[in-house]
Amino acid sequence: MTVETIRFRNIVSVLPQASAVNPRPDQQRGSLKTKRELADPSDRLPKPDWIRVRAAIPTGRFRETKDIVRDHQLVTVCEEASCPNIGECWSKGTATFMIMGDKCTRRCRFCNVSTGRPDPLDQHEPERLAQTIALMKLNYVVITSVDRDDLRDGGAGHFVQCIQRIRALAPTTIIEILTPDFGGRLDLALDILGAAPPDVLNHNIETVPRLYKEARPGADFQNTLNLLQRFKERHPAIPTKSGLMVGLGETDDEILEVLRALREHRVDMLTIGQYLQPSGGHMPVLRYVHPDVFKMYADAAYQMGFKHAASGPMVRSSYYADEQARAVGIL
After folding, report:
1. pTM (predicted TM-score)
2. Residue 231 per-residue DSSP state
């Protein structure tokens, strides 16, 4: 039987032209979305041959997935972040959903998700999400969210409500959550998550510490490591996972140092992908990493003790997340 999955990916490394699906009427686009100074497009590096984006061809399955998303009033990161893999995933009947709204309280300079004052939490969202997962008979689901610094718990309680409803309506579904940093309130968030821990905890490191101030204002490199380690200390049997992108100006040595730091903090699974600039208002791509170098990252990761490492130009945090989980014995 073909394994159906729904993947909720991290909001990084995106292309503006990748989504051929019509945006929602209320979806921010272009300058309204980025609200940043535009860079000169002539300064962009030409894309190499190994960067391949599958066009979002509106097949029957593509439209079916779109209809399910609309009917259940759910938000997809596929659309909000202009994911380059939307055509492939939606045509397979999979989608990447984002809970707690479509407005983020952060303004990371690599990310294409809208920034602004978020709406109040939708108390019916966990039920709609669980109904969708049960309807699609999914074996594996990944749930991510925007940052919600306006909430005391950073949204941890809403994650728990979603997990509980999924387990009630789809008890055989494996659940991976890709979390924000909960505004640095780690102990509070982890206490709340303890009521219904996921099957996989994913929290992305995103980039090297030298670039945090520019790329991730409001985030802290050590907080990310602490979240991953403290969750592992509380739930040693649950795999932890993190991901980062390349092409923002980091060096290979810095990437390897980040991998070592992740392993020192007991992270089990790793994803590394190429950053793709969403618009002229986002950080530019400073290098396109060759596939051979991505293989070097993966080889180094396995030598360091990671249980699984997915590393390649088009790899994203929740892209084929079920296969990553299967590789470490979860499925």
Report:
1. 0.84
2. H
